[in-house]
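Lecture notes, unit on protein representations.

Consider one protein chain, 90 amino acids long.
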Amino acid sequence: MASDSNGARPTAPRKATLSIVQGRFACEARAMSQPTGFEYKAHKNGSVVIKHNGKKATVLRGERAQKFLRRVESRDPQEVMARITGNYKR
């Protein structure tokens, strides 16, 4: 047990506890809102351009573009695009 520098009584180290809410940690579930402002366009050459608030965020080509198109059909498109571009933590 450690005591603090002013001679206060010793304290045990705290254990971190996290609860999980619908697959996310409780602190993340409260703080994160749904992503918005994303759009995408699939081109004839197989590439996919993802924009966020009208600005190009990324371009996917080849297998990554195909995988993205499969995911966006079966999941929330905004969340998929946020994860691909790295904007899901904000």
